[in-house]
Amino acid sequence: MTGFYGSVFKRSTTVGILVRNGDGRVLVLRTGSGGWNLPAGIVKSGEDPRSSARRLLRNVLGLESDVGRVLVLDYIQAGSAQPGAGSQGTGDSITFLFDGGILDTPVETFTLAGGERVARFVPGAGAQTLDAAGSHLAAAGCEALELGTVTELVNGAPDSTVPDAVPRPSPMMPPLAGFSTILGR
């Protein structure tokens, strides 16, 4: 397939989860001798991103809790210089990073999935532990949590077309003498 329909079917959707411990450290996973990554997976056909994130929490981490709000949307363009771009196929992809909440445990490192995966908590966004794409995603997720917002990335970098702050709407009525203090102006 070529043209519009060919490009639509080449897009993949992935989800990631930002899980923290009580100290604010971020949970990262490693399978076998591979690198460290945030808990992540592919959204299956017929599944929405939030359901996929719930499945990931249950299957990978063994947690029956729900995921929180979306923290980051990262649109990866095919052929970009972003590490991991197109890793799920040859087309564009989008990653939803959800708030996985706080896992209240004093354990720093543990084994999951019958010894198949190793998990540990790393300081902050884990920039030294994660690859470039993972560290950008984790840093953006931590910032979104702190600011109470959603961060939009394009190829792992902040989207320059998104305004920093939403402009404050102008009042519908001009201030009236004597009433402005009552209305909180």
List the helices and strands and how they pair.
Blueprint (H helix, E strand, L loop, with lengths): L2 H7 L2 E9 L5 E6 L8 E3 L6 H13 L8 E7 L16 E10 L6 E4 L4 E6 L9 H16 L3 E4 L2 E2 L27
Parallel strand pairs: 1-5, 4-8
Antiparallel strand pairs: 1-3, 2-7, 4-5, 6-7, 8-9
GO molecular function: hydrolase activity
Protein name: NUDIX hydrolase
Keywords: Hydrolase
Q: Can you characterise this structure?
A:
Keywords: Hydrolase. The protein is an alpha+beta fold and 185 residues long. It has a single domain (3-158), classed as Nucleoside Triphosphate Pyrophosphohydrolase (Alpha-Beta Complex). The chain contains three helices and nine strands; from the N terminus they run αβββαββββαββ. It has helices at residues 3-9, 49-61, 132-147; strands spanning 12-20, 26-31, 40-42, 70-76, 93-102, 109-112, 117-122, 151-154, 157-158. The strands form two sheets. A six-stranded mixed beta sheet has the order 3-1-5-4-8-9, sandwiched between helices. The protein has a three-stranded antiparallel beta sheet with strand order 2-7-6, with no helix packed on it. A hairpin with a 2-residue loop joins strand 8 (151-154) and strand 9. The chain is globular and about 70 Å long. It starts with a helix and ends in a 27-residue tail after the last strand. The relative contact order is 0.20.
